[in-house]
Design brief:
The complex is a heterodimer of chains A (497) and B (459). Chain A is α/β, with parallel strands linked by helices and 497 residues long. Chain A folds into two domains: 93 residues; 355 residues, Alkaline Phosphatase, subunit A (3-Layer(aba) Sandwich). Chain A has twelve helices and 17 strands. In chain A, the strands form five sheets. In chain A, strands 1, 4, 5, 6, 7, 8, 11, 12 and 15 form a nine-stranded mixed β-sheet that branches. A two-stranded antiparallel sheet of chain A has the order 2-3. Chain A has a two-stranded antiparallel ribbon with strand order 9-10. Chain A is globular, with a radius of gyration of 25 Å. The relative contact order of chain A is 0.19. Chain B has three domains: 145 residues; 117 residues, no CATH class; 148 residues, Ribonuclease Inhibitor (Leucine-rich repeat, LRR (right-handed beta-alpha superhelix)), CATH 3.80.10.10. In chain B, a hairpin with a 7-residue loop joins strand 3 and strand 4. Chain B is an alpha/beta fold. In chain B, the strands form two sheets. A seven-stranded mixed β-sheet of chain B has the order 3-4-5-6-7-8-9, with helices on one face. In chain B, strands 1-2 form a two-stranded antiparallel ribbon. Classes of the chains: A alpha/beta (497), B alpha/beta (459). Chains A and B meet through helix 11 of A and strand 3 and helix 17 of B.
Chain lengths: 497, 459
């Protein structure tokens, strides 16, 4: 009996805590909002043509479109992440000096106090496994592995000395996409949709398209971290159903689905009115969005209706999961007002330990798979007048060593180990100074010697182009304001128009 | 024993408050007791001590003036009126005491006069310690303007083209110090014995010694103080004052590290342009017109939004509007009339993928600040586009995948500000007979880009 009494007392205490002053204030204000929401939803189901306030009011629709604090240069971002970290030394960073050192032992001074993922002892150096040429009017260097890229080389601004402090894929990808090598932070796309919302009511604001496999860091790199979960990336598949579990099950009509959703939303609304938890609102919105997406997503994800010239330009592979398809989809999404399109293309980890990872086979296949679609994407955006209002970012999570990887002391096919001290990324599109090269590496491409930029600088620059000051764009969590760039980051003004 | 004088002078700020209290109390009691005359004794008591403490304030004030290096021009008003306060208080006291010599002076004259000089003296004293703008500074800019107080932009603004030729010290560092430090470290008010209004003062340092150790930025007092936590008493600027920005701190650090040179220019010192970018004036409107408009009122915006249009300012504080019909596929010419409500404010209009026809140009021609117009994937043929030639800001038109026909192309040659017209996927772009004069070639973008098919073979 004593124990039961104790239990009852505890329950009373918990209940009393629930009815704190804070809860009263929160409950009442949000409760009123919820009441309003109820009537708005009613007007919606009656098929009235007017837009209910819950679409445009942020307190009721977390995805409502917002203006940026400063004049944005772009309204959308297409981020092309080459998962596994492509070798800068075979694509953009031409190092003739390195060719002279080919297959000679690495000077010990380069190995002092360095950490590598796989290199052991004293490796040999590996000369560039590509031929380089100056291309375009700017005469910037590009390797023969990217024959189509020369057509768009004058559109991009190169960052030749990006650096990161992570040298393993998962943490480095997390750092690149969320600003922290550990779990728990919102991804860049989540920050952006949190800050700007989505223009198109029928499509998610943050779409993720993958090819080749899931990034090593897992799906949390498009997670929303401590932001409300409505801002997480929506993973669309280019093969099979675009979004899993979006289709109606057999025997369920769209009408029945609508009725079911209305009932569920009704119940959820009651819950929301009672507790005021924004996650309930998120859930209501997700159901509504899913219902609208059942029609809009298959439409936007359907690349078959594109003219053949366009399909050929991208080199799409209908019905397959391919980077080319994803590039075309990215253009279609941006055209429909999707805010942040994140492409992940897996398979760039060119260690040389197996043919698929070797610079003379697997790497070439990846180059071929991506070269044409990327060039096509830039040209297609350009001819549609979208390149001026879209930012394209290309890069991996780190770079690769000028040394020939010698895993377990064995030198396999040509391959390079992970290395974060210097790698190449590029940006193109609105607000970017065309054809500029910022940063320079030493004669073997091992470290940046000029214009070094950090991962945070990249993030600060992306936010800047979207109209944010990265130092002021914060979210209060666990007692302190958080930002994407944490306490770092400088906008890279050298590449801005 | 000199220090005694210093000490006496420094009691001035304490003592001045006594006469203010005593005399005001005395004056209040004088009014209170004017009918019944029951408390004359206690009133005289108040004026006795009021007069006495005024004398103390005048003496300590004079000592402070002599010992602490205030300029006569700055304190003359305060000092003269302080003496006058003493005179008024003393005379009033004597009159209350019943000295017949004062019969000619009316008590009212002495009373009101005392109130006046007391308040003005106090105010001038306050100006000396807290600065002349102490009371006006917190006022909102609008009110300041109304009061005729000059609102000076408190930000250092550099020009990207010319900043390289400025002397780092006089062109950048001193203006920063002027805004953030000099209000307390100037010849009038030398806090800590430190002058920061000129190079000499900064180099000489203050009571605690030099503030700049060239080539040793970490140890330099100026940087140590800046980097102390804001709560610390020694943090500079004091926590209640406007703080230095990160960019300002960086540039001061650089300057100190470089040995605090006086004359060298930014380019001679080879400083990275990145250090200065935050001092450039922001290009706030980009391609859009830089015009001042009152923001459209919210109920009007809501009524435009009610049919599902996205209506948003270009950026948070801009009155200019960007409107998009992306969520209204059935948007047509009739619905477009709703946009009339915002005709001056619309600068960016996206009517792509809607049912609008050529009739929409009749409406659009009224949007005199329109800069970007999107009509992609519509049935627009271009008939009537010549009506838009009066739009002096119209720079971009997107007609991709519309039915735009080649004959209407030349209507656009007359548009005053046109920069880009996207025509990919229109009958015009497929037409072989279109000949665009050279000067317009870069404006009209037909697209149809092709990739080199042979390039694939090289892999």
């Amino acid at each position: 009996m004593d124990k039961i009494k104790k239990l009852l007392a505890e329950q009373r205490v918990v209940e009393a805590q629930f009815n704190s002053r804070r809860h009263f204030i929160k409950d009442c204000t949000l409760g009123l909002g919820g009441l309003a929401l109820g009537s708005f939803l009613n007007s919606c189901s009656s098929g009235s043509p007017t837009t209910p306030a819950y679409i445009s009011d942020r307190s009721l629709n977390p995805m409502a479109s917002l203006s940026a604090p400063f004049l944005p240069k772009v309204k959308s971002v297409i981020y092309l992440h080459m998962v596994g970290a492509p070798s800068q030394l075979e694509l953009f960073d031409y190092k003739p000096e390195l060719a002279k050192l080919h297959n000679k032992p690495c000077p010990p001074s380069l190995l002092d106090s360095k950490k590598f993922a796989f290199i052991q002892g004293v490796p040999n150096m590996l000369g560039p496994q590509a031929n380089f040429k100056r291309e375009g009017e700017t005469g910037n260097w590009v390797s023969n592995h990217l024959p189509h890229f020369k057509k768009v080389i004058d559109e991009v601004a190169f960052l030749k000395a990006v650096h990161t402090d992570q040298f393993n894929h998962g943490p480095a990808q997390m750092l690149m996409q969320t600003g922290s090598p550990r779990n728990g932070r919102p991804s860049m796309g989540s920050w952006v949709t949190y800050g700007l919302g989505s223009e198109n009511n029928n499509l998610p604001g943050f779409v993720v398209l993958t090819s080749g496999g899931t990034p090593d860091a897992g799906k949390s790199i498009w997670g929303s971290g401590f932001l409300p979960s409505v801002y997480q990336g929506v993973h669309c598949r280019s093969k099979g159903d675009p979004v899993l579990y979006l289709k109606d099950p057999k025997g369920v009509s769209r009408n029945l689905k609508k009725k079911v959703l209305e009932s569920i939303n009704d119940i959820n609304l009651k819950e929301y009115k009672k507790f005021g938890d924004p996650e309930v609102l998120t859930r209501i919105n997700q159901y509504e969005m899913a219902y609208r997406m059942q029609v809009s997503v298959p439409k936007v994800m359907d690349i078959d209706k594109e003219p053949d010239t366009i399909k050929d330009m991208y080199g799409v592979k209908p019905g397959k999961e391919a980077f080319a398809n994803n590039c075309l989809l990215a253009r279609k999404m941006v055209e429909q007002g999707v805010r942040f399109v994140q492409l992940y293309d897996w398979g760039w980890d060119s260690h040389g330990a197996s043919p698929g990872e070797a610079l003379d086979s697997g790497f070439l296949k990846k180059c071929k798979e991506t070269d044409r679609p990327i060039a096509a994407l830039i040209l297609d955006l350009k001819q549609r007048g979208l390149l001026d209002e879209t930012l394209i970012v290309w890069g991996g999570e780190f770079g690769r060593t000028p040394m020939w990887e010698n895993r377990l002391g064995i030198q396999n096919s040509p391959g390079r180990d992970h290395q974060g001290d210097a790698f190449t990324m590029w940006m193109a599109g609105g607000g970017i100074k065309k054809g500029v090269v910022h940063g320079k590496t030493d004669e073997i491409g091992y470290s940046g010697i000029e214009g070094r930029v950090s991962v945070y600088d990249i993030q600060a620059t992306i936010l800047h182009l979207l109209g944010f000051n990265h130092e002021q764009f914060t979210y209060q969590f666990q007692g302190r304001p958080f930002r994407l760039t944490d306490v770092e980051g400088h906008v890279i003004n050298e590449i801005l128009a | 024993m000199d220090f005694i004088f210093d000490l006496i002078g420094r009691f001035h700020p304490l003592i001045v408050h006594l006469p203010i209290g005593f005399l005001l109390l005395g004056l209040m009691m004088l009014v209170f007791d004017s009918k019944e005359k029951k408390h004359q004794k206690i009133i005289r008591f108040a004026f006795f001590w009021g007069t006495f403490s005024t004398l103390g304030a005048v003496i300590t004030g004079a000592v402070l003036y002599i010992r602490e290096g205030y300029a006569w021009e700055d304190i003359q008003g305060h000092l003269i009126l302080g003496v006058l306060t003493f005179v008024f208080a003393f005379f009033l006291y004597l009159k209350l005491k019943g000295f017949s010599q004062f019969n000619k002076l009316s008590q009212n004259f002495l009373g009101y006069g005392l109130v006046l000089v007391l308040i003005v003296t106090g105010h001038l004293g306050g100006n000396l310690t807290h600065g002349k703008d102490h009371l006006t500074e917190p006022l909102p800019p609008d009110l300041k303007m109304a009061l005729g107080i000059e609102v000076v932009s408190k930000k250092l603004i550099l020009l990207p083209e010319t900043h390289q030729e400025l002397s780092l010290y006089s062109g950048v560092i001193q203006p920063i110090l002027d805004q953030k430090c000099v209000s307390c470290h100037n010849p009038k008010k030398i806090k800590g014995g430190l002058l920061m209004n000129n190079y000499k003062g900064i180099m000489e340092g203050g009571e605690e010694g030099s503030i700049i150790l060239a080539l040793n930025d970490v140890e330099s007092e100026i940087l140590r103080r800046i980097h102390l936590p804001r709560e610390e008493k020694k943090h500079m600027p004091p926590k209640a004052k406007t703080q230095l920005t990160k960019a300002e701190i960086k540039i001061i650090e650089q300057w100190v590290t470089l040995g605090a040179p006086e004359k060298k220019t930014v380019s001679e010192l080879g400083l990275s342009p990145q250090l200065f970018t935050s001092f450039f004036s922001k290009d706030e409107t980009g391609i859009y017109p830089d015009i001042k408009l009152n923001p459209l009122n919210n109920s009007l915006i809501d009524s435009i939004k009610s049919i599902g249009l996205q209506v948003a300012p270009l950026y948070k504080t801009s009155p200019l509007l960007k409107i998009s019909a992306i969520n209204v596929p059935d948007f047509d010419d009739q619905k477009a009339e709703l946009l009339f409500k915002a005709l001056d404010h619309i600068v960016d209009l996206d009517l792509g993928q809607t049912q609008v026809t050529d009739a929409v140009f009749d409406l659009v021609k009224e949007f005199k600040h329109l800069t970007v117009l999107k009509l992609y994937r519509t049935s627009i043929s271009g008939n009537g586009i010549n009506k838009l030639r009066s739009l002096e800001y119209l720079k971009q038109i997107n007609l991709v995948n519309s039915n735009f026909e080649a004959p209407y192309l030349e209507d656009m040659y007359l548009f005053p500000a046109l920069e880009k017209v996207y025509l990919f996927g229109t009958p015009t772009s497929f037409s072989t007979t279109v000949e665009i004069p050279d000067q317009f070639q870069t404006i009209f973008q037909m697209g149809n880009y092709k990739l080199d098919e042979e390039a694939d073979q090289t892999l």
